[in-house]
Structures are given as structure tokens and as C-alpha cells.
Amino acid sequence: MTSANRVSQRISAIAESATLKVDAKAKELQAAGRPVISYAAGEPDFATPEHIIEAAIVAVRDPKNHHYTPAAGLPELREAIAAKTKRDSGLEIPASQVLVTNGGKQAVYQAFATLLDPGDEVIVPTPYWTTYPEAIKLAGGVQVDVFAGADQEYLVTVDQLEAARTSRTKVLLFVSPSNPTGAVYSPEQVRAIGEWAEAHGLWVVSDEIYQNLTYDGVSAVSIVDAVPALADRTVLVNGVAKTYAMTGWRVGWMVGPADVIKAAGNLQSHLSSNVSNVSQRAALAALTGPQDCVAEMLAAFDRRRRVIVSELNKIPGIVTPTPRGAFYVYPDVTGLLGKTWGGITPTTSLELADLILEQAEVAAVPGEAFGPSGFLRFSYALGDEPLREGVQRLQKLFA
Question: Signal peptide location in the record (predicted)?
Fold first, then answer.
């Protein structure tokens, strides 16, 4: 056996998560004593709310939680997810159409694995979260990018989507609010895109993980609420990670038509079986318990959002649209490329990210992780003081 075929071609083709890679490098430098400020990780800096922790403590002491549950999840959690889906997405479904997964990533992977056959095309509005391409590729699908830049506030149009559609198009990926841009489609835009997808018989995978994190009075309208006729060809992906500061608890879910959820459940029964019972009990407390903690975290994110947009836009060469959701900004940094900073002339956002990490000790994720070069993603889900200090370092570097 040669070194070339020790690992399968399918797995060899998978790229490491760029966001986790940058975050790991930042943490490595921090451990070595360097005062790196990292905007890389897409997770809240808050502790999980206390009532959720208490539910987990009670659960871990109960022997019934020391054993398997149905692979699809605890019945009571599936009921709670169905209730949340009706409340926030406008879709009424029975608990049997809910599948609890090991985080949102598993839900994304299983959605594409269940829907795609080799060669099926998936239209992907770009910039996109770094995991989507790998999940599509693993399922044998073909990604078709549709790019919208800062001039469009990162929102694709129906005309762009139609130009990308072919006879092999099977799925539209729809994400609002977006990672990495924080862009949120208006109700009118969601309806127009949904009606286009419905008219052409397309499936929709809609990632709603940031659904409850919106600002300025904006609501993230679900595509199945805007176009109810799409419900039989839509898979909703969601989870507790971002809204409740539970990234490490690993609880996500899929909601969709009965046959798709049954098939995805069959896959999960072999892939991972059930999610940790203790984590499921914690997620149940998150969805059914007091929600004031969400409002408090959202207020902090909003404050940080305003600060980082204002301060980044003080740097000549950076254009930062104001995000309406999630906890990211995605500035266009093409105005900084091709110029010399500290003796280095970056020509790509990847080179620019390396430059600011070495010279300003600030970690951000380059646009190459999410599509075309020329952008940086900054998460503002970190403390107020390091957020401001990090931007001030950039202001000094690019003065």
C-alpha cells in the first residue's frame, strides 16, 4: 500500500474546518504567552444559563439517563422542538418529523446525505459557512455558487439563482441569518426566493441556527412560513448552540417531511445513535425554560455589533455592511490588498489574515474559507474590552 492510498479519496478530499483551524492557532499562540485576540470562533463567550446547567445536573444523577434513548431523540425534546418550530418558523409538524442530532453540523451532513445522489447540484448562496461544501461533497453533490458581495449586502437575488439553475439542480441552500455575513433576508425576499424554488420543484435545506439572533427590529422569516407550499420539500436545520451559549453540548436537529426524517434517522442509527441524554435534557430546559437569558445575550451582541461596525469602518480600505443577525461582521478588505503594511504586501485575504495575526496579534478568518478572497470574518461574540482592543490594534496597523 502506497502513501497515496492509505486514506480514501473521498475523505482525503475533505478540507479541515477553516474557522476551527484559525481558532486553534490563536489558542496555541495564547498558550505560548502571546496576547492574541481571537475573532475566529463562532460561539458565544457567555456561560450556559444556570437553569440549563441545573437541568443537566439533575439528569446526570438519574439512572434512566445512563442508557440509550431512541436514536431520533427523547420524545419530550422532540415535542419541544416541534413547538419551537411552530412558534418561530410558522410550521406545524408532529414530533415524529423531528430528528435530534449531535449538533447542527450533523444535521447539515445528514440533510445532504439524505437528499442527494451523485451529480445532483446544490445552489449555494455565497459567502457560505465553511462546512456546507464538505457536506455536499461527501454526499456526492455538486456545489454551484451564487455570489453576492458587500454592494448587495451579501443577499442573492432570484435572477442570480435562476441563472445558476440547471436540469441537475435539486437543492437550494438557504441561510438567514447568515454565517459568515450576518445578512438577513427581508420577508419579501424570502417569499420571492421560496416561490421561485417551489415553482421549479426544488428542495430547500434551510439553516435556521441563528434564527433567534436578530437586531434592529428585524425578524428572520422562515422560508416555510413565507411559502407554506414548500413544507413538503424543505428540511429545516437548527439547534441550541448559538441562542443559548451551548456550543459544547452538541444538540441540534432536523425538521422535515416524514419520509426524509425517517431515512435520516436510519442513517443516524448507524452513524451515532442517540445524542447524549444529559445534553438532551439540558436542551429541553433551554427550549421550555425562561428566555430572559436569550434577551440579555442578544443585547450584549447588539452593543458589540454596533461598536465593531463603527470602528472597522474608520479604517480606510475596509467596507463593513451592518449585519442584521447572527454575531459576525464580514468586511470587504480589498482596499487593503496590494498595499504594503509592515514590510509585507498582501494580495489575498488569506495573506492579510496572516499579516494581522503576526503583526497585530489579532485572529480573523479569511474570506477564502467562505468563498472568494477579499473578505475577513470577525465574530463579535467575545468580551467588550477585547473586541474594542482588537479593532484598535487594526486601526494602528493600517493607519
Answer: none
Q: In what order do the strands lie in the sheet with 121-126?
A: 98-101, 252-255, 234-239, 203-207, 169-175, 121-126, 142-147
* Domain ranges for the chain: 3-47+293-397, 67-288
28-85 residue pLDDT tens: 878 888 899 999 888 899 999 999 999 999 999 999 999 999 999 999 999 999 999 9
Q: Are 325 and 183 in contact (CB under 8 A)?
A: yes
Q: Give the phi and the psi of residue 238 in degrees, each rounded to 5.
A: -160, -175
CATH number listed for the domain at residues 3-47+293-397: 3.90.1150.10
CA torsion 84-88-89-94 (nearest 10°) is 20
Cis-peptide into 177, omega within 30 deg: yes
Cis peptide before 49 (omega within 30 of 0): no
SS3 95: helix
Are the C-beta atoms of 318 and 312 separated by less than 8 Å?
yes
Q: What is the pLDDT of residues 354-381, one digit of tens each?
A: 999 999 999 999 999 999 999 999 999 9
CATH code of the domain occupying 67-288: 3.40.640.10
| C-alpha cell at position 357 | 495575526
Cell representation of residue 15 = 478540507
